Amino acid sequence: MAGPVQSIERAAAILRLLAGGPRRLGLGEVAASLGLAKGTAHGILRTLQHVDFVEQDASTGKYQLGAALLHLGTSYLDINELRSRSINWADALAARSGEAVRLGTPFEGQVLVIHHVFRPDDTLQTLDVGSLLPLHASSLGKVLLAYGTASLESASEAGLEAYTRHTLVAREKLTRALAEVREVGWAAEIQEMSMGEAGIASPIRGHGGLVVGAVGLSGPVERICDSHGRPRPNLITLLREAARAISRDLGAAR
Question: Which one of 100, 131, 174, 201 is most buried, by most CB atoms within 10 A?
Fold first, then answer.
């Protein structure tokens, strides 16, 4: 019987390495972590990039998991369908709100960004598709937790990380916040993952009303929130309208 194929083993090791950390990795970091020659690591990364299993950031040259892996391990919905039915609504939401739009689904105890529309201005922005966000510190994640699409136990298994002094790390406070999300129908993060940044998100439902993902707006606090630090009502309205439209396209009841 033939033995394992070394190149596939190495490719799998690179994918596990990229999946195991919260940040993008450079070629040198990948090669050093796995004990590979840079040329070998680069060849494998280029191949994985060609099949969309890996993406490379244009500005930094660093690598992260690619969009083609998004549907793996997701049994309740074809991620490609979620993305395809969301694209037009996400584009319209970005244009109407003037803010960046992200679409997220649960993945191994985190939020996987499966679609990202840049804020429609000339500012420098980084594509977040394939990025992993914390469930408890992101508005997308709070929506998934609140409606049972992601598990609070998986989010707190190793302890909730405090990204800023505003991050909800006490289980009781997070539980109360999730109850409020279910009550009002949307979630917010205000400087909980990154100082100076804020976001709001609303659930996307599929057949039977099951929440299958979340759509959100994100940007600087002063753009997302009013002078009192509360999310702007007009942005919440636009967001919820887009979420309902996507949900209808996925077969959710009106």
Answer: 201
Q: What's the rounded Cα separation, in Å, for the pair 11 and 139?
A: 33
Region class of 16: left (phi > 0), else alpha (psi between -120 and 50), else beta: alpha
Whether the full predicted model's pTM is greater than 0.85, yes or no, is: no
Tokens, residue 194: 């990154």
Residues with Cβ < 8 Å from 86, sequence gap 6 or more?
A: 103, 115, 204, 215, 246, 249
Instruction: Return phi, psi of residue 151, to 5°.
Output: -95, 130
| Cα dihedral across residues 189, 65, 102, 157: positive or negative | negative
At 17-39, the pLDDT tens digits run 887 665 689 999 999 999 999 99
Break the chain down into helix, strand, coil percent, rounded to 5: 45, 20, 35
